[in-house]
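User: Hello, beginner here. Can you help me understand these amino acid letters and fold codes? It all follows right here:
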Amino acid sequence: MQPLMVAWRDGWSGRVPLVVQPASPSELAEVVAICHRTRTPIVPQGGNTGLTGASQPHGDDSEIVISTTRMNRIRAIDLDNDTITVDAGCVLATIQQAAREAGRLFPLSLGAEGSCQIGGNLSTNAGGVQALRYGTARNLVAGLEVVLPDGRIWNGLRGLRKDNAGYDLKQVFIGAEGTLGIITGATLKLLPLPEATVTAFLATPSPSHAVAWLRRAKAALGEAITSCELMERACVEVARKHDDRIQDPLASVHPWYLLVELTGQGAPEELEERLLPVFEAGLEAQELVDGVVASSAAQAEALWRIREGAPEGQRREGVSFKHDVSVPISQVDRFIAEANAALAQRFPGIRSFAFGHLGDGNIHFNPIQAAGEPAEAWQGRLPEVNLIVHDIVAGLGGSITAEHGVGRLRIAEIRRYKSDLELEMMARLKRCFDPLNLMNPGKLLDADLIAAAEGEA
């Protein structure tokens, strides 16, 4: 039971008297109904791979954990309808593989895909590296099955592309972090399985140049661009430092890089032929300064290893201040520049460390403590760093959490960055579905906001 009490990163932990692992939606519904009668709060938990403490209980033994791990069936695949219906506890990689074996693609892809569960992915509206082309998790859902806070089961597993008969209720539960009900099943959209993949590692002078080249590439290549990841030089250096397998792909050092992946039908050579003129035009316009195209699957994997090695390498560098933010793509360069300048003025020696999904404006802005200084001197600075970074994000029309969610980590901060009316609407929705506040209490919305909504209802 103890592994379910502790987050894999950042120290979130808790304690409960009971963990329940139902094997079916009906079993889960029975447990929820009992909790409703006894006024027992519930913490829903999937793969326990979250980053904001949303799936960890508090430490007072007041709650129970309901884990969906045993609910892991692939229920049905409908190739004519291009949908797959699965239990909420299915591991994301298992769904990807089942789709691939059927000749289809389920495109949601993220670092934890070997252990995260689809119920958690939907409850947090996961993004991942292919959101540029396919959107976030909510764009890939045709229908949901949800156990409501009173134990009733809502069966919304309709695989329809068009259904205009009232509110789109499934969207209420996607991104709600388990605060409105527990997702127990999902009907997901499948797409054609790409026949060709081309991966390129490109050097660029700055984020603004990278945005200019991406605009050019989207105009020329359209939906062929599946991923466009931005990394500064520090990310490459840290990844190499802590993983002997990682090599520098280019002969010269450059300040910024793009990791670009194209997918489509036909031969890889055809995709590469489409990419090369866009690459050359970028060089002529000085949007790019160098680049390499992977000539094999092994080389493509090596390029992706750089991107995947950046977060792990960063963890070993000392105290880092992690931000999962989004801004309009046109403001990415300004955000990074203003945030770095403000932090450098306040905290001399702090090291810039930015990477993320340029194609959808989601930047993981994770500055690292000054080199050679004791970690203890930096550990207490997170609130002030957050305030500086998030105020800049808000000023640029962005969001303080792009794909990780609010959980326990950002629950106090959203009061500063959402309007009173928006918070009121969220709290009223919570009161409507969960008037006893039994579903994942203390996550996403605090009790004061919920009580205020009740008083104004």
